[in-house]
Automatic annotation (TrEMBL), chains A, B, C:
Keywords: 2Fe-2S, Iron, Iron-sulfur, Metal-binding, Oxidoreductase
Polar residues: bias regions: 375-391
InterPro entries for the chain: Cholesterol_7-desaturase, LigXa_C, Rieske_2Fe-2S, Rieske_2Fe-2S_sf
KW Repeat (keyword) present: no
Source organism, top-level taxon: Bacteria
Residue span of region Disordered: 374-423
Rieske domain segment(s): 27-134
One Pfam family per UniProt: LigXa_C
Protein name (Swiss-Prot/TrEMBL): Rieske 2Fe-2S domain-containing protein
Stored PROSITE patterns: RIESKE
PANTHER family recorded: BLR4922 PROTEIN (PTHR21266:SF59), IRON-SULFUR DOMAIN CONTAINING PROTEIN (PTHR21266)
Length: 423, 423, 423
């Protein structure tokens, strides 16, 4: 339960808000690289943290991310001409480099120096793992790009997707960190083959987890321990990485999963998912599974990124199947997350009236970390996680351990072997 | 004409508003029984008085009506599992009885007593005449169910329908009480057969009514008297029953009509209509008429309850027919009411700028009763009508009387003969 | 750049706003005459300056324009009966003349004088050049209709159209006055035949204009001078006529163009365009061009007046054509204006953050004139332009002049020869 003030603080991320300032200290996913695949191709509209932007891939292959409104009279640069060296507004031909510098003002006198004094708002981008990442914070504080394992992998070893999620970003974050819901929301009444979904058969579905939460260099380690039928314990280690990322344990062997909840505005967000495997490229079965829409990747409309199962069609809930097949009557893991996250008393959950339980410890810890960090930043203390690139070089873990093994020992055996790019 | 403050008072019915408090003292129609026909079937979303609820028929046949948000972290119970004994939230499996008591918290430790201290907001329901009625007020003040005649009838003697009306509920109330508009809005230029609508041929269409308004145990008796061509007077007695009900005189013999205007929120409402006949079951002609969509029942979309004639299609107005067939160019009595009620200067009528006439006396009286009752309730005086179940056992009346007959004498002859259920 | 206060002042035009008051001092286009073509035909909804109105052509051919809400209980007169002498509300039969006087209250007692004291809000109309014009200001200040040349022409010599523009009206005004954008936004990479658009081949596209702005009796003369390849100068004279009109130089010989940007509300507007030619009626080629949708007239949906190219379909931009055919990848002059005007940082441009250039002088002058006039009016000084009918009898001009010719000399040769109606 949060105070009304803290709930506002947690959920508002527009320009000038404390939480918006905090998130802007980090590199965040902005769009899929495939949206701006073609050098010199069409610009695309991108909304992030309440800001309207335009992304474009210049003929030289680099990606620009500028405020949509032209500094002149605010015509949208979405209509702009993607030219060598920059984007040109179609209204009066002003041209801007990817760093925002105005390069040309053809309607001004030739000897004018006006263009030297005009800059578009521009944000640095970084392309990794099929995603264009962006840094929306103060230029002088721009951190090194986080040392994600997936960012060092060649094509074929990862798959990135995004979906529109019609709720505040933090409801998505909470869902990712919520290990306890797995055995309810995602429960099937039979095996994988029958129900088209990853089975939880390796985990005792009837036991509740005991939580341990520890801080890490990047955020939190959320550890859920369950008694294991064969003896010892079954562990799920879900790292929460500042500002809004998680690494979610996968039921599929050696298939790692990263998720990011990125505010579009305060009532909608982009949900990014990356799956990756350093050991070997995805094979046909991997692609079939990841593109099948029943994992944490979902099938979406290619234009709007609205999931095929969405609130307009009640996520295609099958009430008969809810009694015979799985707990929700909805097929697919992420497809099951969406209905509960998108309507927690509307698009922004009112956390002043909730009743938290013992299984909400990871969520409570993540809220506290975010609130504390946002408040500290307002007082001048920068979030140390933003500058700790190495701390992002990790994976989640899930699996059984013997009675004398702690989670850290098990987790460490599953971590990336090297920080060197895989070739 | 109302002050701006009184218009606000009259039209705002959300939680905590004075008019919302008043309406919550009464049993009101919440949804059609047919929407939750199947025991153990799918829950349905219900919005009433600005509250988002979920209704479901338990496997034992009883109907639950709970706040949609789960008390835990507010996931919607609409996605819930309708199980023996209660509804279970799909997010973490919390289960609630129809009275709101939390029955299970499977993710909490087995010895936890937390569930005993958590209740969902729940409202009592009562099924009668094809409608699930609800009481949204303080539990300790829950009144006896009103002794409506239709509530004592077996299947086959009544027909209930609902429609979405895109305006504040009180514009619907005013339309029901407004006897004077009948001879204009509902006028046809010929008989019933030609124009597919109940004819007003038994009433002199060219004469204006003289109004008498008296208080009753349930609200008001709105009496309209017109000179009758054959001598004496033609009477229409329209009871207004607190909080938002009317009994509308019907042109069809022995076919009684009840209507209720129920706020969804302040700019939309449910219009419920019940027709009933104790004397004998509906026959084929009755059903044909009532389901034909040209009476106070209208044809609606079965999912959304939006009338087939609606503002998006300008209620299918036929401007040619407006000159040749009837006053509006729109077929059907309720279909004619909708356009004028749904745009009285927008969804909420600005009553500070209206110009009332002598034919608006019933409306003025109903406003006064509602405002006075809401204000009294705020000072601690409960509305006596809510506790006067017997006073709701009545019908409307319309018909001619001789010169020496008063309306009450005529009306009393038409009242229910007994309060015993018809078997 | 404007202060936030001045931007509010400039863009808000609802009842009681200073700019709304100013615009209401002038005759403005309200709807196309073709929308109310038939005497006694269906009333149509008209929204102007935040007011909801209903227009109708009485059986006698005159056009009424009344506030949509009936003075009684505010049912919309859109549903009304268009009868001899006035419009009758279908709710209770109140009837109003075009001047707003209540003519009948059939539900009131016969001897009642109530109707003499009730008036609907009504605005005078004037039909000219295929448009119903209206005056929404104080009756006692109603000016003579402006002496537009097109208003004196017979059928066949003019063409009027309107389109819905989803932005504040002043973004449209600014676009009309903005001579500099012509050589960018409207540039083609070849001739007229190839690209289906009026070519700018008679103007040196690579040279920027030098501006001269002078006041006129109706508003401003905005003069753009460019060096002419053949010697001397190429002139474009664009009159700005109070309150929101322009006369735009045409590339087509003797084809004059008038445009008006009329607020619907603060985030949408009607764009009216009139083309006219006194010398001879439009011939087949004229109609083909004007109805082809590639000039300042666009093709629109006949019901909603939404342009066929609109924001939902990204104005059918062709990104390939943007590199090969013309500057925008969008066909048609007005079609090119719409995307930049409709998203200048949203529906209302934030003029506090723009960066104006030397080519924005006409825009700056028009803003100043409008702001100054609105402020003066609040202090009691009426705008003199409203009463200067003769000053509106003008055309724009574009064409080359020799080195010793000034713009005024050239412009005057192109002005209407007479104020007499052409027969």
């Amino acid at each position: 339960m949060l105070s009304a003030a803290d709930n506002e603080l947690l959920t508002r991320t527009g320009p000038g808000t404390p939480m918006g300032d905090l998130i802007r200290r980090f590199w965040i996913p902005a769009l899929l690289a495939s949206e701006v695949a073609e050098p010199g191709g069409a610009p695309v509209r991108v909304s992030l943290l309440g800001e309207k932007l335009v992304a474009f891939r210049s003929p030289d292959g680099s990606v620009g991310l500028l405020e949509a409104r032209c500094p002149h009279r605010h015509a949208s640069l979405f209509w702009g001409r993607n030219e060598e060296g920059g984007i040109r507004c179609v209204y009066h031909g002003w041209k801007f480099a990817s760093d925002g510098q105005c390069l040309e003002m053809p309607a001004e006198p030739e000897d004018s120096s006006y263009r030297e004094r005009v800059r578009a708002v521009a944000y640095p981008t970084h392309e990794a793992a099929g995603i264009i990442w962006a840094y929306l914070g103060p230029a002088e504080l721009k951190p090194e790009f986080p040392d994600f394992e997936f960012a060092r992998l060649p094509e074929g070893h990862f798959h990135a997707s995004k979906r529109l999620q019609r709720c505040n970003y933090f409801q998505n974050v909470e869902g990712e960190l919520d290990s306890a819901h797995v055995q309810f929301l995602h429960r099937t009444f039979g095996g994988y083959e029958a129900h088209g979904r990853v089975s939880l058969k390796s985990m005792d579905e009837t036991e509740n987890p005991v939580y341990t939460i520890e801080e890490s260099g990047a955020g939190l380690m959320c550890v859920a321990e369950r008694p294991y039928p064969q003896g010892g314990a079954y562990w799920r280690v879900t790292p929460f990485l500042m500002p809004t990322f998680t690494m979610v344990p996968s039921m599929v062997e050696a298939h790692n999963t990263f998720t990011a909840a990125i505010p579009i505005d305060d009532v909608s967000s982009w949900g990014f998912t990356i799956t990756w495997r350093p050991e070997r490229p995805f094979d046909e079965a991997d692609w079939e599974r990841d593109l099948g829409g029943l994992t944490l990747h979902v099938k979406v409309d290619p234009e709007t990124f609205i999931p095929e199962r969405n609130r307009e069609n009640n996520f295609l809930i099958d009430r008969e199947a809810q009694h015979t097949t799985n707990f929700t009557g909805i097929m697919g893991t992420r497809n099951q997350d969406l209905p509960v996250q998108e309507d927690q008393d509307g698009a922004i959950c009112d956390r002043t009236t909730e009743h938290l339980g013992t299984t909400d410890r990871a969520i409570v810890a993540a809220r506290r970390l975010m609130l504390r960090s946002a408040k500290s930043l307002q007082k001048g203390t920068e979030p140390p996680q933003a500058q700790n690139s190495a701390a992002y070089n990790m994976r989640s873990f899930s699996g059984p351990g013997t009675a004398d093994q702690g989670w850290r020992e098990l987790w460490e055996t599953a971590q990336p072997k090297s920080t060197q790019p895989v070739s």
